[in-house]
Write a structure and sequence with these properties.
Helices cover about 35% and strands about 20% of the residues. The chain is of the alpha/beta class. It has one domain (about 25-170, about 200-280): Alpha/Beta hydrolase fold, catalytic domain (Rossmann fold, 3-Layer(aba) Sandwich). The strands form two sheets. The protein has an eight-stranded mixed sheet with strand order 2-3-6-4-7-8-9-10, with helices on both faces. A two-stranded parallel ribbon has the order 1-5. Helix 4 crosses helix 5 (about 145-155). The longest helix has 22 residues, at about 115-135.
Amino acid sequence: MKIIAAILLGFSLNGCSSLLFQPSRSLYYDPAKMNLSFQEVSFKSLDGTTLSGWYFKHTDQREKPKAVICFVHGNAQNISSHFMALTFALAKGYDFFVFDYRGYGSSAGEVEGPRAGVEDTISGLRYANERAQELGVPLAVFAQSLGTALAVRALVEEKETLHPAFITLDSSFISFEWAGASVLSQFWLTTPFQPLAFLLLSDEWAPGRRIRELAPTPILFLHGEDDRIIRPRLGREAYEAALPPKEFILVPGVGHIGAFWGADGERIRRLFLEKMDHSVETP
């Protein structure tokens, strides 16, 4: 009973922060030790909170990049544990920018929930778009897990000014409530508390069916078949809510945000690059 009481108390006190946002200030991997060309940057969120990010430059800098990818990462840790998911794109002619939400990494402030996450993502997308415009190249968006919901909602809010050429959503969902329930279903001890997700979380700032407003931007949906954090049916729901052009790929043998790294990873990375190449090269 004490364990159950502790679980209930933790969820009630932390609400959406504990289910959706799990920040860390630690440095997990240092790109400065990996012979990568990158720049540490800071920029302001909509309310003035200072956010931090890393801008990575493609390998052959004699030519301008094909596009600038804005990488919107998932809910845990910070950019230092996520950036390597896209480093393979640097050798293929792409720059990318990855940033931390408030309360993560070197970004100021504390986690405040989905609304602040969306506002931070709007600011990150604007920064990446400014870099793309300076270079005269398109903007692309790559998002994972929590970042997929934040990115979609941010792009919907900014649809008059931000026009990415290509969007990739890895381990996606469009409802914070259902995502929270999925997270609670991972362990037998928390499974009975799934209904709490619908009490403690709100979909006010979730993208929901507004994902269809991103059309006609092409969207590639990736989801690990063995994902036990964000169940594949939630990614399928996001795909079905979107309008064409779109594609959903269920990747066998991998779990959460693992599409690029399983046994089929090389093929998925190649497919991702081919589809993005086509989109950014199309006038």
